[in-house]
Amino acid sequence: MPRVRVVIVETERLILRRLHADDAPFILTLVNDPGWLRYIGDKNVHSLDDARRYLEEGPLDMYRRLGFGLYGIELKQDGSLVGLCGLLKRDMLDDVDLGFALLPEHRGWGYAAEAAAAVLAQARAAHGTKRVLAIATPDNRDSARLLERLGFAFERTFETPDNSGRLQLYGIDLESGAGAR
Question: What pTM, to 2 d.p., does this model score?
Answer without folding.
Answer: 0.92
